[in-house]
Amino acid sequence: DGGITQSPKYLFRKEGQNVTLSCEQNLNHDAMYWYRQDPGQGLRLIYYSQIVNDFQKGDIAEGYSVSREKKESFPLTVTSAQKNPTAFYLCASTIDRVRQFFGPGTRLTVL
Amino acid sequence: SQKIEQNSEALNIQEGKTATLTCNYTNYSPAYLQWYRQDPGRGPVFLLLIRENEKEKRKERLKVTFDTTLKQSLFHITASQPADSATYLCALGNNAGNMLTFGGGTRLMVKP
Fold first, then answer.
1. A47 alpha-carbon distance from chain centroid
2. Backbone phi and psi for residue B37, each to the nearest 5 degrees, phi listed first
3. Which of B42, B103, B105 shows the shortest C-beta gap to A105?
4. What is the distance between the alpha carbons of residues A55 and A34, in angstroms, rounded to a whole number?
5. Smallest CA–CA separation between A20 and chain B, in Å?
6. Measured on CA atoms in the order B105, A109, A66, A101, is the torsion positive or negative?
7. Which residue, of A100, B55, B74, B95, has the greatest Cβ tally within 10 A?
8. Rounded to whole angstroms, how far apart are CA atoms B18 and B39?
9. pLDDT tens, residue order, chain A (111 aa)
10. Contacting residues of A for B102, CB less than 8 Å apart
């Protein structure tokens, strides 16, 4: 089955820790995206990548970093510089740069 | 700045009725508008896309309208069912095709 997987489903972070969220897709999609969703709010774009080894900042990139070494993978690191990281993180991909296909999400909580 | 407004209050309707959700936007000239469904704790799922030169789009029990003069889209679910209960997000995109801008979503509750 083709799709997007995210892991872990739940992640707990202590203050000052960096954590990495995984996103993998086997849809052969070129473009991938990371969003953050807070309760009752829409999705806000963190980073996106249109091709391997290239990525651009979205609206709220501060405190986050990404890499795109393989077409299938687009991991997101939440650094200690992100002061309010508790949120639901969603990864998405697209082949036509229009319709986006989302993963199941990772819920990050800061302890 | 770009702004997309969806009714933040939940919409409660009776099974069998038509649900109508609204998406309004300002400071934006989108090339297309999309609607997604999101269930609790899950990622959004694409439902429909309508382009700026289209007035209406249908898919089974779903209908979307797009009025670029009013800067508004309406999303209709006819013969609603309890299984339609979810949060519905609208998203706008331009021809650069790189990014979507999402609204905050409206929660729909269909009661049996």
1. 7
2. -110, 135
3. B42
4. 11
5. 19
6. negative
7. A100
8. 20
9. 569 999 999 999 888 899 999 999 999 999 999 999 998 788 999 999 999 999 999 999 999 999 999 999 999 999 988 889 999 999 999 988 788 999 999 999 988
10. 35, 42-44
